[in-house]
Specification:
This protein has about 120 residues and is mainly α. It is built from five helices and no strands. This is H(+)/Cl(-) exchange transporter ClcA.
């Protein structure tokens, strides 16, 4: 029992440390950061945020910490949308649209809602 509690504490602490050191913008729900990116107020290190959010979330949940439902999926979706915008060589306006589409897909996934095609 004590080993399990200790393991959970180490896992949760490692998840928190990963987020704080590697990508502080991945902390919290992520929605204010995505809004700031869409309004050109923040830069977007999408690759780092994506992996830190996914791995840090897994470690935090494994450690017993609470993780929101909508915020992380919105931020992960926005990161994937940004990757798509960069992949297709879009202009800045199209990249912002791709970020918004990715965020909308993340919100849709959080609630198991179908995405219209």
């Amino acid at each position: 029992m004590a080993l399990a509690v200790g393991f959970a504490a180490v896992l949760a602490g490692a998840g928190v440390a990963l987020v704080r050191r590697m990508a502080p913008e991945a902390s919290g729900s992520g929605i204010p950061h995505v809004e700031g990116v869409l309004h050109n107020r923040f830069s977007f290190r999408w690759f780092r945020v994506l992996w830190v959010k996914v791995i840090g979330g897994i470690m935090s949940i494994g450690g017993g910490l609470a993780l929101g439902r909508e915020g992380p999926t919105i931020q992960i979706g926005a990161c994937i949308g940004r990757a798509g915008g960069l992949w297709f060589g879009s202009n800045p306006e199209e990249e912002r649209t791709m970020i918004a589409v990715g965020a909308a897909a993340g919100l849709s996934a959080a609630f198991n809602a179908p995405s219209p095609g």
